[in-house]
Amino acid sequence: MTGFPWAAFGVNLAVAAGAALAVMLATFAVAVAKGVHRVVDIAWGVGFAAVALASYGMSAGHGDDGRRLLVTAATVVWGLRLAGHIGWRGRGKGEDPRYDKMLKKAPGSRNAYAFRLIYLLQGALVWLVSLPVQAADYVRAPIGTVAIAGGVVWAGGLFFEAVGDWQLHRYTSDPAHKGTIMDRGLWSWTRHPNYFGDFLVWWGLFLTACGAWQAAVVCLVSPLVMTYLLTRGSGQRLLEAHMAGRPGYAEYVARTSGFIPLPPKKGSVR
To answer: Which ranges does the record mark as transmembrane (predicted)?
Structure first.
């Protein structure tokens, strides 16, 4: 396997793990001080940005500068937008019901239990999912058609995620919509435009690492894991289970695609 700097990449993996852990440790300290662990959701996007910046610094002189800049900028923009949105959405709120339910099962200290099951797990996932970001920094080939395609896919994902979040916020901010189901805009084409956007973002970032086949093989696990999390893990499956009993939700499910955007079926509102 020539052409890929494996030794330098191995060091990068360790540094990236340290960056992800540092973000989680700092977030845990804030959470304990505030008495709520929902702040860890903000750390998800920040963790990816930290890993991207650490990898960019470590990879100087090893990979193509254009590709390094592309993947780092894309990851930081995505991560900080997501962190900012989650932080703004959760301002002034108490504990997230998901974490409250989980921590009620704590055999001892709630904080120690949260650190093991939430912070360390999310830190590990940040490290794993960010493999394309790290690997792309060490690809020596200049940006080509596949990397450009990856940038286009990433941009499409950011559009779905950001616009979907904005549309949902505007809808739920109107008191007249209280207790109703958001079924407008992108939400009439897919029940999860934000999750679909994440899906595109990480497959796009994976494509940026495909300038070297060794890197592509190593980091294929990343978009596969993210796809599983979004569709079968903590994303779509849990949210739909939470929404299932709401009035009008069954009808919304019947006329709206579950994940991949498709034209709404007959009877859709807007």
So the answer is: 6-32, 39-57, 111-130, 200-230
Tokens of 185: 């805009």
3, 4, 24, 181 from 116: Cα distances, Å: 39, 35, 11, 35
pLDDT at 270: 43
The mean-pLDDT minimum among 88-97, 129-138, 157-166 falls in: 88-97
> Tens digit of pLDDT for each residue in 232-243?
887 788 889 878
Mean of the per-residue pLDDT values for the chain?
Answer: 94
Exposure on the CB side of residue 83, measured as CA atoms within 13 A = 19
How far, CA to CA in Å, does 123 sit from each of 22, 111, 188, 201, 209?
9, 16, 34, 19, 22
**CA dist., res. 18 & res. 10, Å (int):** 13
Of the candidates 12, 164, 198, the one whose C-alpha atom is nearest the C-alpha of residue 89 is: 164
Contacting residues for 75 by C-beta, under 8 A, at least 6 apart: 48, 49, 51, 52, 130, 133, 205
Average pLDDT over every residue of 9-28: 98
End-to-end CA separation in angstroms for the chain: 53
Cα separation, 182 vs 219, in Å, equals 36
Cα–Cα dist 132/135, whole Å: 5
User: What sign has the CA pseudo-torsion 87, 89, 94, 96?
Assistant: negative
Residue for token pair 């340290």:
18
Q: How many whole angstroms separate alpha carbon 118 and alpha carbon 105? A: 13
- pLDDT tens digits, residue range 161-185? 999 999 999 999 999 999 899 999 9
